[in-house]
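Appendix B, example 12.
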Amino acid sequence: MMIEVRWHGRGGQGAWTASNILAMAAMYDGKHVQSFPAFGPERAGAPVLAFTRISDEPIEIHSMVYNPDIVVVLDPTLLGQVNITEGLKEGGLIVVNYKGDPEKLYETIGVEKGKYNIWAVPATDLALEILKRAITNTAMIGALIKAKPLVTMESIEKALHHRFPKPIAEKNMFLIKKAYELAKEV
């Protein structure tokens, strides 16, 4: 079975990096993976997309993800500006950087409660507290794997240490664990 994830973020927030870390962790778990972005000459702050595919079998699809199983939103300001549910499979999972009233979240996304499985985490607050920067990508990985355990924590840690110098990898792993703890279904 293949799982397709679409990441929504803004330039500079690390959507593609998150996609790569998730894919690398899945690879360490013995899965077949793809990770790729969809952006042009956007500047920092412009909306960007990234995609991850994870499968038990070799992946023979080489196109964008049009009907994701999961949507991850790194920046809550995209809610209401971008149609994050476009193509999302019925009953799909949405993991969003959000704090506040769940009813307001459903209203902002424009969906009825129960149509999708929605999880939220205050990723910006956590990133500012731990990294001292509003880069929410690794916090969103923590929330994602709580909502749907696609990969093991051990593999995420390996992927982080492959991607970043040790001090940065350790801070990001702490952030992932904290986001994992705080993520909840809304």
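The chain has one domain: 2-185. The helical segments are 15-28, 102-109, 123-130, 137-147, 153-163, 166-182.
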